[in-house]
What we know:
The chain is of the alpha/beta class. The protein is 40% helix and 15% strand. The protein is built from 13 helices and 13 strands. It is globular, with a radius of gyration of 22 Å. The chain starts with a strand and ends with a helix. The model has no long low-confidence stretch (mean pLDDT 93).
Amino acid sequence: xxxxxxxxxxxxxxxMEKVLMTKANYLADTLGHNVHIIRVQQHGKxxxxxxxxxxxxxDLDINYDEDDNKNIIWRMICRKRKKKxxxxxxxxxxxxxxxxxxxSMFDYEFDxxxxxxxxxxxxxxYHFCKQQKVNEQRNPIMKILQRIRVSLWTDTxxxxxxxxxxxxxxxxxxxxxxxxxxxxxxxxxxxxxxSDVKSKNIVAIGRLTYSKGFDRLIxxxxxxxxxxxxxxxxxxxxxxxKEYLNQQIINKGIEKNTFMQPATKDIDNVYKNAxxxxxxxxxxxxxxxxxxxxxxxxxxxxxDFPCGPKDIIANTDxxxxxxxxxxxxxxxxxxxxxxSYTKRVNANNKAVIFVRKFELTSIMGIWEKYxxxxxxxxxx
Length: 380
């Protein structure tokens, strides 16, 4: 089967790029498919992740970024012109490649791909949750504008042969679309050595951005940090809110057992030496950090943010879901897990079994079956 993915670029170190690398490599190397990745504006940069040599890359060289500093009217004019060029280049390439499946990663080609006339079935992947673009905005007016923008996506989404989201929760958010389905992202690495949950280490991991909500975590931890001075909270990540969060820790007077560490490639060691993961995101698509922690047998205490917690740890003993934004309740739940080694051990045993359903071979088996079903369907 010939499969093409469309994405803005592959030089970034983001989660979407990592998932693309994982799936594309498996499709090309393990399943033997002919895989192409079509990039909009790579700018001649190298891939951040290690993509297979069996994958063929194509660059359209359309520079949308160069218009970012122009006023909004001129930017809209330039965007419209470049969309026409983009559509022409993409259509010519797809007709030449003669692919069976063409997948949009919900990038610049989102509103172009379903209108291209070639033989391929058109599939759209969304790696976030529907509310994310709205929740990211702090300005009330921008929230309204983003809500309108997201609502306008539906007409284009309906034109795709298939629309794939990451969680059942998010599927429900999109309403009664007849082309929607759920396929979670895979866990690339399933460890064989787990945490013994004896350490007095609590971890939080992710980009230091507003959407990850580490400010909420620090507020909750500050309520009990001095009471449990022998426990420590370590936040791993890089990002624009680093100085703000460091200052918040100092202002709360908890710097003796609260630490900020840069993102690390030795995440295996971090998980193995942790007894709890805390997640206070304002929104996620499918939180891979949560799945990774569970794969090491670490219980997760999390706000009920959209989307992910309900799909992963609802109705289980692998962690706790707290009403979104309830700082005091979060602090009490962290304290409960601190004081219950037996509960942590029970969570450990259940988690390492649960995550096997997210193994790479299992998830890619779902994709393989779905691709065949899609190509055998009648044209929409």
